[in-house]
C-alpha cells in the first residue's frame, strides 16, 4: 500500500505512519464527542445525517483510527465535513486517509498555506472562511467558528458550542505546563487574543492536546504564559544566561513555583518554554503575525 508521507522523505517512516493507536473517545454531550490518541485531542459532532469532524490527527494510521472511533460512536453517519483547526500536519495533515470525500472547512489563511505546502495526504480546503466569527449551520447543527487573530499556526479557528457551553481551541492554551518548543506560537498577542475567548460563556475547555479542562484551568493557562513572559523579561535584567536551558529553568521555576508548580509537567517543560519566550523578546517576533495589529496586515496579503 502506498502511504501518504506528509512532508517526510525517509522511507524509514513507513511503520510510524501506518501505526493505528488506540483512540480514547469520551462523550461530552448528546451530540459532541472528544477523542485523543494519547497526545493530540480533537472533537466531532453528530448532525442529523452526518458527522462534522475537527482535524484528522497526524499520521495516516491515526487518521484511520480516528475514523474508526467515530464509526463506533456514531454508527451509520458518514463524516461529510472536516473543519481544520489550523494548518499543522500533526492535527490536520491526513484528510486523504480520514475522509477523502468530505468538505474541508478552514480559514482562508490556512487554505493558502495548505495550497502552497502541498503536503502528501493533506486535503486542500474546499470552503474558506474569513473574518473573526462565522456562525455555522451544518446538517442541522449550529456552532460558532472563531478566528481570534494569530495565536498558533496559521488561521487558527476555535469552536464554540453555546448549547453545551463548550470551547474547543487547538494547540493554544493548555491546562498544564507541557508546552513543547512553541515554534509557531505568535506570542505578541497570544494571551490577549486567548483571553478574549474567555468572554464566551463556556464551562468545558477542550484543548488540542492532553486532558479536557474547565474554564478555571483555561484562565490559569493564560495566567501562566503571561507570568512566564514577565519572568523571562526579568531574566534579561538579572543577567541570567538566557540561552542556557538549565539556567532559565532554574530561574523561572523559582519565580513561578508557588503559583504554578502544580501544573502538570511544570518542572520538565518550563525551561524549554522559557528559552522560546526569551527568543521572542530578542527578535521581536517571527513575522507579520507578531505585529501589534496583525489582522490588518494579514487581510492585505490577499
Ligand atoms: Zn499546531
Describe the overall structure.
44% of the residues are buried. The strands form two sheets. This protein has a seven-stranded mixed β-sheet. Strands 8-9-10-11-12-13 form a six-stranded mixed β-sheet. A hairpin with a 2-residue loop joins strand 8 and strand 9. By secondary structure, the chain is an alpha/beta fold. Helices cover 36% and strands 19% of the residues. Helix 7 (215-237) crosses helix 8, helix 7 (215-237) packs across helix 9 (266-283) and helix 8 (245-260) crosses helix 9 (266-283). The model has no long low-confidence stretch (mean pLDDT 96). The protein is globular and about 60 Å long. Zinc ion binds next to loops. Zinc ion binds at residues 86, 88, 91, 152-153, 171.
Write the layout of secondary structure elements.
Layout: H1 14-18, E1 24-27, E2 32-36, E3 41-46, E4 51-54, H2 60-73, E5 79-83, H3 89-92, H4 95-98, E6 103-107, H5 108-117, E7 127-129, E8 133-138, E9 141-146, E10 158-161, E11 166-169, H6 190-197, E12 204-207, E13 213-214, H7 215-237, H8 245-260, H9 266-283, H10 294-299
Parallel strand pairs: 4-5, 5-6, 6-7, 11-12
Antiparallel strand pairs: 1-2, 2-3, 3-4, 8-9, 9-10, 10-11, 12-13
Percent range of helical residues: 25-40%
Largest sheet: 7 strands, mixed
Low-confidence stretches: none
**Total beta-strand segments:** 13
* Bound small-molecule species: zinc ion
Q: What is the N-to-C succession of helices and strands? A: HEEEEHEHHEHEEEEEHEEHHHH
Radius of gyration, taken over Cα atoms and rounded to an integer in Å: 19 Å
Helix-strand category: alpha/beta
Task: Indicate the mean pLDDT.
Answer: 96
Strand content: 15-25%
Please list the strands of the largest sheet in the order they lie side by side.
1-2-3-4-5-6-7
Tally the helices: 10
